[in-house]
Amino acid sequence: MGNESPATGTPTGETPPASLSPSLPLPLPRLPFPVVDEIARHCLRDDEPETVHIEVHLPRRLDHTRLRAAFHQALTRHPRALVRQATARWWHRHYTWQLTDAPDVDPVAFPPPAHDTLARARQRALADCPPLHASPPVRLEVLESPDPSDGTVLLATLNHTALDAPAGLRILATTAALYDGADNSPAPPPARPSAPMDSRPLRTLTGTPALSRPTHIAPSHGPGHNNRSGSGNVADDSSTTAPHAPHHHTDLISDPGTANGMLLADLPVPARPPRIDGRPPWTVNDQLLVATWLMATRWNRLHGRPGSPVVITMPVDDRPRGDEMPIGNGTRLVPVGFGPQERRDADTLATDPPAPEAMARLLRGTAARTRALKSAPGAPLGPVGTVLTTPALPVGVRRALTRALRTAAVPWTSTTLLSNIGRVPYPLDFGAGGRPTAVWFSAPARMPRGLTVTTVSVGDRIQLTLRWSHTLLDAAAGARLGALFARCLAATSWPHPPPGPPPAPQAQEGDAR
């Protein structure tokens, strides 16, 4: 392994692969931006980097030369990752990806071992987005501390205009397979009985009226903003730990000089009732949605903003997880609304602990709603996204229209985004380097939503990341919000809510979805 050169991130005595070449034969294969990529490209801002961060904690050290070679080879196995944006003029009909034969720059770096290596890399993941003009739009940092027993952290930073978190995990799984030859095939999906597609309009399935404006997270910067004007025995948000929701550790990354702050926590998977006819009444994903709803509702009551419905944006990913998985942005976004019944139960749900009967109703209603939303067909960003990316107008005009519509639609922006990958579908087995002890990822938290909640399960633990805009929250408020989420998630654990009658048979969900 040896020492590294701080200037290049290349271990001493090693050279980057000879395949790196800034001059590639032309013409290169080209691919018009898909809908999600184009909308993201229209809305880019220099002060809000559009990054996805993924970190994989391994118990032992890795060989630097083999890892670099494996990652480069993995990129060639998934050529859609080896892209750069072609030069675009305002009158062009498309933004276009150029597919390159090899990286323009070496995406793998080995920062010198130090006690703050991980914290500094996390800060870079929030502030320094891999550029679109150089292939690939991804950076992999291999992080080690001075103590060899601490193992290795692989921290990947993706430009979200080009790649999402499931695509990044797929590339890392291929890297693991090439590194040591271990079988890193994805686990088979859970057996699901067939269910008819729900053809009702998406707005009908969300559970909220068509013209209702979702509530937004109340801003908080310092103790003066903690206005507890809610009614009843509302849970206090002032503690930084959750006494009945223990977690191994919490890491807070919040530099006021960056656009986003981030909190990473390790929480137990909440218990569920026994399965009935082989299926649970609700899934862990449903419990995470309910915990997010409770967090937003309690937080806003504590800060003097009760009333409006909470709407949570939920990514749904239907892609296969094998080598054939399409790389890029492959999820569709659906709004999960919480309607009149939840608002009627809001007072009893806002208490700590919440009323068991109301909690059971909320979980059962959420389970039915998410099954319907997942089965309903839909475009990645809905019909509006499809219309905005139709190449009838030049990209410059479409960009102006998209940004204007985004500004006009601020009052109807969802409360927050919850992205739950569930159980990591790959072993991520690096042979002598071991399998992951923890995995975290985060999505950008641009205003006006300003907050994203991301989760992934490893073993019997949930790795939670809250990421927020500093326009919305400061570090202390982010820590309080994380503690509040931990308590809300613990409140969904069975047997606190009685199981009640099971919902009508529908498609079975995976254990962590």
If you had to describe this structure to a student in words, what would you say it looks like?
The chain folds into 2 domains: 30-180, Chloramphenicol Acetyltransferase, CATH 3.30.559.10; 202-418 and 448-491, Chloramphenicol Acetyltransferase. Mean pLDDT is 84; it is low at 1-24, 192-202, 224-236, 238-248 and 498-513. The protein starts with 29 loop residues before the first strand and ends in a 22-residue tail after the last helix. A hairpin with a 2-residue loop joins strand 14 (451-458) and strand 15 (461-469). The radius of gyration is 23 Å and the shape is globular. It has 12 helices and 15 strands. With 513 residues, the protein is of the alpha+beta class. Helix content is 27%, strand content 17%. Helix 2 crosses helix 4 (165-180), helix 6 crosses helix 9 and helix 6 (284-302) crosses helix 12 (475-491). It has helices spanning 35-42, 64-77, 117-127, 165-180, 202-206, 284-302, 340-344, 346-349, 356-375, 382-388, 395-408, 475-491, and strands spanning 30-32, 51-58, 83-85, 96-99, 108-109, 138-143, 152-159, 250-253, 260-268, 311-316, 332-337, 416-423, 438-442, 451-458, 461-469. It has a 7-stranded mixed beta sheet.
**Average pLDDT taken over every residue:** 84
Strand order of the largest sheet: 8-9-15-14-12-10-11
Beta content comes to 15-25%
Task: Label the overall shape.
Answer: globular
Per the CATH scheme, the topology name of the largest domain is Chloramphenicol Acetyltransferase
- Our count of domains comes out at 2
Helix content: 25-40%
Top CATH class of the largest domain: Alpha Beta
The CA-CA distance between the termini, in Å, is 39 Å
Architecture (CATH level 2) name of the largest domain: 2-Layer Sandwich
Biggest beta sheet summary: 7 strands, mixed
- Radius of gyration, whole Å: 23 Å
